[in-house]
Write a structure and sequence with these properties.
The chain has 110 residues and is mostly helical. It has one domain. The chain is built from four helices and no strands. It starts with 13 loop residues before the first helix and ends with a helix.
């Protein structure tokens, strides 16, 4: 008896297939391994913690801790806006690959 399909295996529908097909394929392809994705996320977390620790270690003041935290929080919110809010609420006709792609798309529409 076959196993039930995973929620990630479901067909996203024709509109999502069209959006996905607009991207040029790269030689390396997309990262498919769940383990590799988790390792990559862990390495980003480690890199961020090391960089923040080294930065704060050299200039440890309450003001700098607050400003670094505010900077990180602000860029995280901007990232969320750029890739989730725009795609889901402002322009659902286009799926972005990065900030440069986002800027090019809106520059061409002007």
């Amino acid at each position: 008896m076959p196993a039930p399909p995973d929620a990630h295996d479901e067909d996203p529908g024709p509109s999502a297939r069209r959006r996905r097909s607009t991207y040029p394929r790269t030689a390396s392809g997309d990262l498919q391994s769940k383990r590799a994705i988790i390792i990559k996320a862990g390495l980003f977390l480690l890199l961020g913690c090391l960089a923040g620790g080294l930065l704060l270690g050299s200039i440890l003041t309450l003001r700098n801790v607050f400003l670094l935290g505010l900077t990180i929080w602000s860029f995280c919110r901007f990232y969320y806006f750029a890739f989730y809010v725009i795609e889901h609420y402002l322009d659902s006709s286009y799926q972005y690959r990065g900030l440069v792609d986002l800027i090019r798309h809106y520059w061409r529409r002007r």
